[in-house]
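User: Can you predict the 3D structure of FMN reductase (NADPH)? Sequence below.
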Amino acid sequence: MGDVSFLVIIGNPRPHSRTATAAVAAARAVADAAGLSSAPETIDLSDLAPRLLAADPGPDVAAALERVAAADVLLIASPTYKGTYTGLLKSFLDRLPGGALTGKVALPLLVLGAPQHALAVEVHLRPLLVELGATVPTPGLALLESDLDRLDSVTAEWAGRVASAARGALRAEASR
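Assistant: Sure. Here are the predicted structure tokens for FMN reductase (NADPH):
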């Protein structure tokens, strides 16, 4: 597939988090499985956290929002806190105007502390991305913390299942 801009948004408030590691691994696995030529880039929201709630968040937040606007594919990742994505991720996504993700393919990923939160990726994160206009063509990845020790195999398996649908959605968005 041609040159596609792939951006990973990491919604963990801790820098260098397990969520970041998982998100980058999942994005690389999807890029490889889908035959995307460009390597995924990242925005780690922990770097922007102190400014996200400010009335004037400054140029760093504006630049991050511009990167989202320029991306073709987004992998949106967060740990689960109280059964859903983080407030940090929500604060960032709330800065996007309505419909800001129209024409973009989004892949949701949540890192879970317990299996009872497995539906959170579909019940909470997917609807938020759809509300912003994204095409979410695949099931999200609900990744248990206990599976992080076999991250490469878990993300490769997921990427194998979703690559075809992601490619198809990219083609459909490109033809609009």
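Strands lie at 6-10, 41-44, 73-79, 105-112, 141-144. Residues 6-174 form a domain with the Rossmann fold fold (CATH 3.40.50.360).
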